[in-house]
Design a protein that fits this description.
The chain has helices spanning 41-49, 70-76, 92-102, 108-118, 134-146, 164-178, 190-196, 214-217, 238-242, 267-277, 292-299, 305-308, 312-315, 327-348, 354-377; strands at residues 3-12, 15-25, 30-34, 56-61, 64-65, 77-80, 152-156, 182-186, 199-204, 207-213, 226-233, 247-253, 256-261, 281-287. It is an alpha/beta fold. The longest helix has 24 residues, at 354-377.
């Protein structure tokens, strides 16, 4: 294995950033390492690269322990952190030569020329790094990460902030590098993982919640459950659909039904037979497969889009005691009532100076206008 992580823990004070994390990456594999912000992705990558030490657990790179020989593991790793650390006053070739000297690269000028060509920097090679676009800066960072020909490449958010054209170029570059290197890629862009990676590890709250091939994880944690969405013309009730062999759940969504089954056969065939037997016309019959983004949301505690998206329009009107009165009406009353009370109180105080009343009224009106403006900004 190129990367082996076993029972990794990392504490900051009493807070556990990473809890009992274990996974491995084979030679020549491109792994997507996913998780919400604060899940422990960057911490795990920093432990693997030797930037920070683990509280406990074992991390090996190409069979070498990071704890026992961190210098050797750093020779084996090329690392591109989330915030690309470049010397912007240096020229591209000058910077790559500087990095190559740190790694004691042999035939340095030849190697720099090879890196410039491989990452597509020929046109920009004589410019200062500070004059480059973000896409070309990322290319410089990648070239610096692989100039010493490492076995393992670790990339933390390599496409963050790039435009669509730059995204495609950097993705293709990573795929090309992945043919000969082991690549561990952290990103928030699910399409990127689907396009580049062979396997995905998802971490949430410091713990691994998924570790599978991309093509398998797209079926979700309940991979043995089939889901079919069907719309039928004719009268049908939920209990009738529940009688179809193998069906475990039926839920009405808009004008159709979401039907789930744990049977091995194709559920669509069973529903077609059911429709024929009950003289029903099938309008829509689709197999529902969750995208990687939906699976990610499900295993990290996010909202499941597939089931809840049709309810979005209802949520606002049901916020206050299941009535049809919108929430902003109550918020407006909450602002108006105290202001009205202040004004009435001042008017009833005969000994209160008229000038002070006017100032109080102006202050109350100003407060009301400001509160109303803030309320309007929410919509």
């Amino acid at each position: 294995m190129s990367i082996e992580v076993k029972n990794l823990f990392k504490y900051y004070g009493e807070q556990a950033a990473v809890r009992d994390v274990s996974f491995s990456v084979k030679k020549g594999e491109i792994l997507g390492f996913l998780g919400p912000n604060g899940a422990g992705k960057s911490t795990t990558m920093k432990v693997i690269t030797g930037f920070i030490s683990a509280s406990s657990g074992d991390v090996k790179v190409c069979g070498v322990s990071v704890e026992e020989d961190s210098l050797r593991t750093k020779e084996l790793i090329g690392y591109l952190p989330e915030h690309n650390p470049l010397y912007t006053d240096m020229y591209v070739k000058e910077y790559l030569e500087f990095v190559g000297q740190i790694y004691h690269v042999q035939n340095l000028k030849k190697r720099v020329a090879e890196m410039i060509k491989s990452v597509g920097l020929e046109v920009e090679q004589n410019k200062r790094i500070g004059e480059l676009s973000k896409g070309y800066r990322q290319r410089v960072g990648l070239a610096a990460a692989i100039i010493h020909d490492p076995e393992v490449l670790i990339l933390d958010e390599p496409t963050s902030g790039l435009d669509p054209n730059q995204l495609v170029e950097i993705r293709e570059l990573i795929k090309e590098i992945g043919k000969s290197k082991t690549v561990m890629l952290s990103t928030h862009i699910m399409q990127e993982v689907e396009a580049i990676c062979e396997r995905v590890v998802i971490i949430n709250k410091g713990e691994i919640v998924a570790n599978e091939k991309v093509k398998d994880i797209q079926f979700g944690p309940d991979k043995h459950i089939q889901s079919v969405y069907v719309e039928l013309e004719g009268t049908v009730i939920r209990n009738q659909l529940m009688k179809i062999q193998g069906v475990t759940k039926v839920e009405q969504i808009n004008s159709g039904w979401l039907v789930e089954s744990k049977e091995a056969g194709d559920l669509r065939k069973s529903i077609s037979i059911f429709a024929q037997e009950h003289d029903l016309l099938i309008i829509t019959l689709n197999k529902v497969e969750q995208s990687l983004e939906q699976v990610f949301k499900k295993v990290t505690g996010g909202e499941d889009i597939k089931i809840t998206e049709f309810r979005n329009e209802e949520k606002e009107s049901l916020t206050y005691a299941d009535t049809d009165i919108p929430s902003w009406y109550y918020q407006l009353l909450a602002f108006l009532l105290p202001i009205a009370g202040v004004i009435m109180y001042l008017n009833n105080r005969s000994n209160f100076p008229n000038k002070a009343k006017r100032y109080a009224l102006l202050a109350a009106i100003s407060f009301f206008i400001g509160a109303l403006f803030r309320l309007m900004m929410r919509f």
